[in-house]
Design brief:
The chain is an all-alpha fold and about 170 residues long. It is built from nine helices and no strands. It is about 75% helix and about 0% strand.
């Protein structure tokens, strides 16, 4: 197979075919996951301040979170800061840890009681975003932000500076 045929084989719809073993660009896929998770957390964190009665302090009081006047703004700031970090791909792995904890607390404080009172399928429906965010964060925790993240860009620059014969 010549170069042109090889390029054609590894581009377009051929990549979707079963058994395709061509090169994979995980940077793009990880960027999509980072943006999905980052946008959701950024928006949710902002809304804890914009709609404090429904989504911030008032909600935390309703579901029994201790010190809701402290915890709601704290969680809001964590969601905003970590959401921005994920969008940028900066400290990606580290940023996922508080978000995973955030989601586990959300499931324990809201979805498990919902499961007990409403049943399995309504609880599954209600928890779909929570589980999606946990799984997205776990993927980023394991894989990192990818080559399109600032983490990846900064790492490549640092490696280039360490190589002999390169300018700093």
């Amino acid at each position: 197979m010549d170069h042109a045929q090889e390029h054609q084989a590894h581009s377009g719809l051929y990549r979707l075919m079963p058994g395709h073993q061509g090169p994979v660009d995980n940077g793009s896929a990880l960027a999509i996951v980072r943006w999905m998770v980052g946008c959701v957390f950024l928006a949710e964190g902002i809304q804890k301040f914009l709609f404090a009665d429904a989504l911030g302090v008032g909600r935390f009081m309703k579901i029994g979170i201790p010190a809701p006047e402290v915890m709601a703004p704290f969680v809001g700031v964590v969601e905003i800061v970590c959401g921005i970090l994920l969008l940028l791909g900066l400290c990606t792995r580290l940023a996922t840890i508080p978000l995973i904890i955030d989601m586990l607390v959300a499931i324990a404080s809201t979805k498990i009681p919902f499961l007990i009172t409403k049943g399995f399928w309504p609880a599954v429906h209600e928890a779909r975003t929570d589980w999606s965010m946990i799984l997205g964060c776990l993927a980023l925790l394991l894989a990192g932000g990818g080559r399109l993240a600032l983490d990846g860009i900064l790492q490549r620059r640092a490696e280039a500076r360490r190589r002999p014969g390169t300018r700093t």
